[in-house]
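Worked Example 4.2. Consider the chain below.
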Amino acid sequence: MIKFFRKIRQNLIMENQTSKYLKYAIGEIILVVIGILIALQINNWNENQKAKQLEANFFDNVLIELKKDQLKLNYYKNFHTKRIEYLDTLLTYVRNPNKTMGIDKFGMYVEPLFYASDPTNYNITFESAKSLGTFNNFKEKELLKDLSQYYTDFTLIEKSFSSISRFIENQFEPIMYTLPENYINKNTGNLVINEGSVQEFYNKVASIKDYRGITADYEKILKTPKLENYLIGDMGRTFGAISIISTRQHMLNQLLKN
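Applying the procedure from the previous section yields the following structure tokens:
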């Protein structure tokens, strides 16, 4: 094609047809400009298609992670709801000394309180895209803003769960250290809610026979004012955690609708 145009130019020059040559030259320039514009349009279209596909892939991956988060939040909600039940049961016996609990029941309701929940944030896709500056070409700005707020608010979950963990370590465990742990048996962990199995631990402890004849005076623990203070403090923190979890669940449901 280039040789064809060159031959035309040469013929016009040789024939001394200046006016026709100028018209031809202008026409050639116009064709070149049109070609460049078409190429730019094609390139822009390709870039837009790539950007659309990148954005679609981003939201597909975010959706997968949000659904993981949904399952995790359901677990957190169940974990802390059960914790309230155990705290309520123990507080009932603490405040009613005429009720006899029995060491086995005491052990089953006390053991779950040693466990706290560790928060997990499924935000890898969002943070990776954010660090790479990928959001600049995205169209769904409002949705990105909502996602950013959702992930930022995860710190509320972390602080709430951390508060419960510290309270267990600083207040609950010191109270329980005064009680010999020979009350633990293979059934003690039946009410424990944990993502990993803990039954092997309780089976192992129960398999080691205790020949000392020490009696675990759990009633003395129930009468300790510190235990009542702990149960109420833990209950308050757990209700707070449930409130934060519920708020996050609501935010998540709104995101999933979008």
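The chain has a mean pLDDT of 88. The two ends are 52 Å apart (CA to CA). Compare this with Example 4.1 before moving on.
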